[in-house]
C-alpha cells in the first residue's frame, strides 16, 4: 500500500475548467462528472484556482436574487488551491485528509495539471487493499 502513488488513483479524463467559463457551465461539468469541485486552469493547464459546489451554490443564489446574470468562474474560484504531486504516496495523502480539507485535489506535475484525486478514490483504494470490504457496484465503475 505504501508504494501506491497518487498517479495510480487519480482521474485524468475530466477536462478542467478554463478561466472565463460561465458558472452555469461549471455546474453542468460538476454534476455530470459527480465531483464536488474542479481546478481552474489557463491555456497551458497551469492551475490558477479551484471551484467547488459550495462556491457555485453561493454565487448562483446571490446572482439569482439580484438578477445579475450568470457569474463567471473567475469571480468565485478559490485562488490558492492545495495541489499534490503524482508521485505522492496515497497513504501520505490519506493521513493528511481531515475536517476542513479539500475533497478534491488537483494533481500537478511540472506546474501543469495532469489529473485530480478525490477522497472517494482514496477511500475506494484503502477499502479494496485487504480490509475485506466488498464495494458496491457503482463504486467499482469509477
Short structural description:
This is CBS domain-containing protein. This protein is of the alpha+beta class and 142 residues long. It has helices spanning 6-9, 23-33, 53-65, 73-76, 90-96, 119-128, 137-140, and strands spanning 17-18, 37-41, 47-52, 104-109, 112-118.
Folded structure, characterized:
This protein is an alpha+beta fold. It has one domain: Roll (CBS-domain), CATH 3.10.580.10. Helix content is 37%, strand content 18%. It is built from seven helices and five strands; from the N terminus they run αβαββαααββαα. The strands form two sheets. A three-stranded mixed β-sheet has the order 1-2-3. The chain has a two-stranded antiparallel sheet with strand order 4-5. A hairpin with a 2-residue loop joins strand 4 (104-109) and strand 5 (112-118). Helix 2 (23-33) runs antiparallel to helix 3. It is globular, with a radius of gyration of 16 Å. The two termini are 20 Å apart. The model has no long low-confidence stretch (mean pLDDT 88).
How far apart, in Å, are the first and last alpha carbons? 20 Å
Uncertain runs: none
CATH class: Alpha Beta
CATH level-two architecture: Roll
Structural class: alpha+beta
Largest sheet, described in full?
Answer: 3 strands, mixed
* CATH topology description: CBS-domain
Detail the topology: elements first, then pairings.
Elements: H1 6-9, E1 17-18, H2 23-33, E2 37-41, E3 47-52, H3 53-65, H4 73-76, H5 90-96, E4 104-109, E5 112-118, H6 119-128, H7 137-140
Parallel strand pairs: 1-2
Antiparallel strand pairs: 2-3, 4-5
Helix pairs in contact: 2-3
Keywords: CBS domain
InterPro entries: CBS_bac, CBS_dom, CBS_dom_sf, Diverse_CBS-Domain
Protein name: CBS domain-containing protein
Amino acid at each position: 500500500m505504501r508504494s501506491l502513488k497518487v498517479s495510480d488513483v487519480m482521474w485524468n479524463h475530466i477536462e478542467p475548467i478554463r478561466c472565463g467559463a460561465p458558472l452555469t457551465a461549471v455546474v453542468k461539468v460538476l454534476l455530470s462528472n459527480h465531483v464536488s469541485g474542479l481546478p481552474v486552469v489557463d491555456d497551458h493547464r497551469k492551475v490558477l484556482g479551484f471551484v467547488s459546489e459550495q462556491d457555485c451554490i453561493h454565487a448562483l443564489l446571490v446572482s439569482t436574487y439580484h438578477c445579475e446574470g450568470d457569474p463567471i468562474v473567475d469571480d468565485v474560484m478559490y485562488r490558492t488551491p492545495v495541489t499534490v504531486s503524482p508521485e505522492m504516496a496515497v497513504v501520505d495523502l490519506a493521513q493528511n485528509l481531515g475536517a476542513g480539507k479539500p475533497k478534491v485535489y488537483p494533481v500537478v506535475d511540472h506546474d501543469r495539471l495532469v489529473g485530480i484525486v478525490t477522497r472517494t478514490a482514496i477511500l475506494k483504494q484503502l477499502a479494496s487493499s485487504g480490509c475485506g470490504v466488498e464495494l458496491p457496484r457503482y463504486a467499482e465503475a469509477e
